[in-house]
Amino acid sequence: xxxxLKGERFKVGFRGGPIGYxxxxxxxxxxxxxxxxxxxxxxFTSVMPFENFIKSNIHLLPSGFTLVYFQNIFSNMNLVHGFxxxxxxxxxxTALTVTCTMMAAYALSIYKLRFGRFLSGFxxxxxxxxxxxxxxxxxxNAYGITNTFWVLILxxxxxxxxxxxxxxxxxxxxxxxxxxxxxxxxxxxRIFWRIVWPTNTPIIAIVGLMTGLGHWNEYFTTRILVKxxxxxxxxxLYSILQEQKLFAELGRGNILNPLSYQAxxxxxxxxxxIFIYPFLQRYVVSGLTEGSVKx
Length: 295
Hints:
mainly alpha, MetI-like fold, 2 domains, 14 helices, 72% helix
């Protein structure tokens, strides 16, 4: 009997006591170090003189400090133009995607439209089926938007995944509020912009954050669909990597673009996200879980 009581006390102490919390915090600390160190390594490399960088294979902390790579970045007009394209694409694409996704989710979740389920089914198709890169390119070319800025925006203007998340969230919206607004003479457009939109900040924030990250980091289709004058910063970074790889294969080495220079370009892509994400982080969990539980 005493042994069983001691066992129960040990289990309780392990699960909810100091030992359990210590183990949980140790695991979380290890996970933070493993996931965050590559980010800090890029930041260290971007401000470390290249001659100090090549002296050792392992750098736990930066050795020396320099901003020469950032000066080279902003003196390179191609990269500056790429960053401007990235900002313009991210802001425009995110605004249009959030607006269109929320409007579609509002229309197909709150009001019983004729063929509403049939229309919602169209959003399922691109989630499970993909025609491939060549048909996608031919379709964009048939619409006449290749080599234009809009080919980077319009194909993803309404995200199917975020549509269903927003739809599940709006399906639990209070019908009494909407009916009261209709009785007061408000139309559908006014109800959406004056009532639904301001009261769904979490889902709007999460859709905007994830869509913005996608636009900011995307580079593959950009290289295929547009010319060099519309390239974004990640595409230029990729071209720098390919250039150094080519020089390495030729055995020449590229003095103008060392690894530290690439790290500085990557840091310029990472730092804006680091500053923006904390302001929206509190909406991430609530935006994903709202509407998941009814009642």
